[in-house]
Amino acid sequence: MTSNSTRALALGTALGLLALHGAAFAQSNEPERGAAAEETPAVSRNGVIVLDQIDVGAGAAGTAGTDVIAVDKEELDRRKPGNLREIFAGEPQVQVGGSIPMTQKLYVNGVEETNLAITVDGSRQNNKVFHHNGNFLIDPALLKAVTVSAGVAPADAGPGALGGSLGFETVDAADLLEQGRNFGGFVTGTWDSNSNTFTTGLSGYGRGDGFEFLGYINYADGGNFTAGSGVEMPGTGIDLLSGLGKVAYESVEGHRFELSHEHLRDDDPRPYRANFYFNRPGEPETREYDLTRQNTVFTYADTSPEGWWDPKVVIAYSATKLDTDFIRFAVTAPSIGETASFNGKVENRFALELGSVTAGFDFYRDEAKFEYVHPADGYVSDEKASNVGIYAQARLEPSERARLSFGGRADHQWFTGTDGSDWTNAGVSGNLSGEYDIVPDVLTAKAGASRVWGGVALAENFIQNPNWNYGDGPAPVTSNNLTAGLEARFNGFSLEANVFRTDIDDARLPVYGGATPGATSLATHDLQTRGWEIGGRYDWDVGFVSIKYADVTADLDGYYPDSDIGRYLTTPLGQSVMIGAGYTFVDYGLRVGGDMEIAFRNKDTTFVRPEYADAKLALPGYQVVNAFAEWTPPSKPNFTLRADAKNIFDENYTNRASYGQDFDGTKPHFDPGRSFRLSATLRF
User: Fold this and answer.
1) Domains in the chain, please, with CATH?
2) Please, which residues have CB within 8 angstroms of residue 564's CB and are 6 or more apart in sequence?
3) Predicted confidence (pLDDT) per residue in 402-436, tens digit
4) 326-357 as b/e, with b when 16 or more CB fall inside 10 Å?
């Protein structure tokens, strides 16, 4: 779709909003049979309202004593995130590097996302394709909840939760339908001033006779943005198409069957190395990166469980594909990397007098494949891994003042290398966490610990080498996690402090090597991340104010890591502060708010590892301020206008978690300078 056609589509959407704004929309007012009469009460956790009925597949929200960061639908609606980083605004424990969505990488307590158990609607994600782009591209407009279990993750979060778990859940028709209505939809239009990006979204959904459906499509098109210095950043445009489709059936007895498919494609010129600028002779400034991600999930659950019968079945397929050209010896040839995961689980939640026990088994079959279509020395390479695990996780409340969670899992993995060699490994994992009300309703202490066996991780597609020699076999990766904290609450005030530590041993980080068989596939590192977070928040009926500080440090094999050696493990983060506030003028339908990120200068990155002679740079500090105003006229509650001001003071900066800024001679992406985002949403 061309820029002109996109602008025409966006203009048509805007005209449609104006034309439809005053119209009456016919909708069915017949209550849905079996619809819940009441919503489950909300609970406050870590300063964010979490709805207990939300299950993002990570098992984190209901696990006592763990360090949980939860973002629900209400918070997502307030933030209106445009990318992965904006989802976690205000949470310094979660850092997202990369100035454009397709290069963004996420770090939890300093641990990179491929070391977490990541799920979307319960489907395992295997997205490690190319180290110059991000691992996980998602459209935040599709989401209704995100839950992070930082460090200690429960056994039912899935295999490979070395540094915790991360679960995303996409919206259902029931989340969008207004009370008493069985059909609806919305149309949105957004314009960003910095990159001249137009975004148009359209959705329709409904339910009847036990059936539900939802369809959503979103398209964004725009040019390069300019940094705070006023310099245009080549290769930062957007050509993004995303969609979500869901169908479900729920019987009168509560048997619910759901099938969903999510599809996303980003296709636009990027810097030759997408996440930073470093052009060598003969290399163009930009090349096309065509990235596609899909996720298909079938779920069965019993929404009216009785006694010990509360089953859940998930069967899923997820895949990510990157197609780009590679220049070698003056010859341009396509290079295609694709990762895929066929996975699922069968579990049951047993209700007990003191709580519950969830037990079941899960499986995955992951593949990472690379194809280099060169006329002289092209090749195809792949690695595969299959895993079967059994698990059980107890969540108990032994007294009114104590909550306890413990569990374990056993995994058996089969791994196949690029040379066809097969290796079998097995291991067990365990976790224990709990919390105790020192002063009921006022002061709570919590702590958790886990030991995780993660098997052998697949190598990134673009560095795979069919000549690898696996020697005596790759070593399975393991980790140990510790977290502890205190939380105080009184009259709307909440204060929280947490300490954490993660040790990952034998983390695989292979390099391509040469054409001669070698042991480069077996390269491993030992990682330790540690730090602490402290924060406070005050909530009242129509507003809130929050502030959080985090200090995250790491070492790799005993040395301070840089953003290159830690590209799949960690990145230099240091100290940061995040501040947020919001207020609602109820009588006027006006909501205002803002957030601020402060990153302190980090000089630890100037350390040079013995095996490298590259000059190193300190990471500069920066301050970024954002604000928004959103208006829903009381007389027209189906229409919303919103204005966001991003990077108000035009700070020229690179986000702390972004790649390459600690090396002399490389030019990192600067983040966007000041921009204004205007949007309108019409619900019908």
Assistant:
1) 3-683 (2.40.170.20)
2) 659, 660, 663
3) 999 999 999 999 999 999 999 999 999 999 999 99
4) beeeeeebebbbbbbbbbbbebbbbeeeebbb
